[in-house]
Design a protein that fits this description.
elongated; 9 helices; 2 domains; eight-stranded mixed β-sheet; Alpha/beta knot
Length: 250
């Protein structure tokens, strides 16, 4: 079972039947209650947001690390974080995430039969992602050598156990960060930050179509307006009610 974790109140977001025209009307209505400064910031963020890179976190158990990974994704402009849960439930500590869960799309992958990793990674492969496992395997290559000519999903595991055998089997390549001390690994949230610093930095210099589509921007603009406007649920309900009356001719 795959589902999205909602960060804060997202008025109307779960209405999958909402058509684009209605969404546009609601967004225009909500825009009247969003400051120009906030609108400008939203547009700046959308212009540098990407789904070309995504992060997969497998079975993290410490809320501090999990929340730090969300914050890292937001800071580097990565829109989607895929969370695979086996025996550990992904919990967001907002004092660490500092509200980042509102702006990052966190997708939770759960399977009672234990196939969450396989389902998640296979779905990403089907959508054109190469799977890159951050691992201590001897065959791992330096992250700086990884080509970005194809969409990339970066997989992070726990500090103690690393990624599962299934994650290794489904990965297209093994990558590692350089280390020169006694410890073999960084804290998982630090690993994610260092890796994204390298990858996003290179991505922004390449002539690739890594930006969001206009439709994706519209969806996020709507979502973020809902999360910005106080009592957005009431505004959404009013617009929907007015639209129903218009369509029924009342």
């Amino acid at each position: 079972m795959d589902r999205e974790i909602k960060g804060g109140s997202t008025a109307g977001q779960d209405d999958n039947s909402m058509d684009r025209e209605l969404q546009h009307k609601i967004r225009r209505h909500l825009a009247d209650f969003v400051t120009e400064r906030r609108k400008q910031r939203i547009e700046e963020v959308l212009a540098r947001r990407t789904r070309y890179l995504t992060v997969v976190a497998e079975n993290l158990y410490q809320p501090h690390n999990a929340s730090a990974v969300i914050r890292t994704c937001d800071c580097f402009g990565v829109q989607d974080l895929h969370v695979i849960e086996h025996n550990n439930r992904f919990e967001i500590n907002d004092s660490v995430a500092v509200g980042s869960g509102k702006w990052v799309t966190v997708r939770r992958h759960v399977d009672p039969e234990g196939n969450a990793t396989k389902r998640c990674l296979q779905d990403l492969k089907d959508r054109g992602y190469r799977i890159a496992a951050l691992t201590l395997q001897e065959s791992a290559e330096p992250l700086k050598n990884v080509s970005l000519d194809q969409k990339l999903a970066l997989c992070l595991g726990t500090e103690e156990e690393g990624l599962s055998e299934t994650a290794h089997e489904l990965s297209d390549l093994f990558v590692q960060l350089p280390m020169h001390g006694f410890n073999q690994s960084f804290n998982v949230s630090v690993t994610g930050a260092l890796a994204l610093y390298e990858l996003i930095g290179r991505l922004h210099t390449l002539d690739l179509d890594w930006h969001l589509t206009e439709e994706e921007k519209d969806d996020l603009r709507y979502d973020w307006y809902c999360k910005t406007v106080p009592e957005a649920e009431l505004h959404v309900a009013r617009v929907k009610a007015a639209e129903r009356r218009n369509r029924s001719g009342c």
